[in-house]
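User: Hey, quick favor. My workstation is busy. Could you predict this chain's structure for me?
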Amino acid sequence: MVNDQMVNNSVLEIRNLHASIAGKEILKGINLQIGAGETHAIMGPNGAGKSTLSAVLTGNPAYTVTEGEVIFRGKDLLSMPPEVRAREGLFLSFQYPVEIPGVSMTNFMRAAVNAKREHQGLPALSAGEFLKLMRAKRALVELDNKLAGRSVNEGFSGGEKKRNEIFQMAMLEPCLSILDETDSGLDIDALRIVAEGVNKLHTPENATIVITHYQRLLDYIVPDYVHILADGQIVRTGGKELALELEEKGYAGLVN
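Assistant: No problem, here it is.
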């Protein structure tokens, strides 16, 4: 049962969400509620629908929602174009961040930050204000100054790209961050730095969805809830101990 306090504290409510791509149904009735200050981990085998869920929430046009609704901070998320979802405070850290040659990180982030501020009715940051903010956030996630001065992700290693994603998250201060297999391809040092950055950015007002295959990321980013997604539906929900049980028994041992 959902009480009034839970509803008032809700950042995201997903109700009976169905979605397909190229006529094939991938999500088959997702129900999920995420409150302010909460971290939710979504785990599941390949093809379960984890990345599809993140794509649908952020507005990837390749996917078609056929049923259900998503309420984000009291508003109909599915009616918003992708850029409005971002300005409203939704952030996706990509599994495979793209390179944008010729676009400097400074210009890219200043445009993004000021677009969000305009959406909120706030004045644009001056060059000096922006650079001060950028220095503070860069230090927070241990991003090298040389990387911040280059084109977006161009020539970055896998770990540098993921760290840059967390830097963008720090700059934009989203209400809901979706980390889509952020741990993919990271060595243990890069994983620690990325996870520490995520933890530093967590507040009682925002929320995080961590999509991962592995328990190891959840040793650093400890979830309040773990959900197992299989064949387009959430089939198990529990606390952080569910991830440990999954590590021990595997998906077949918990889903079947």
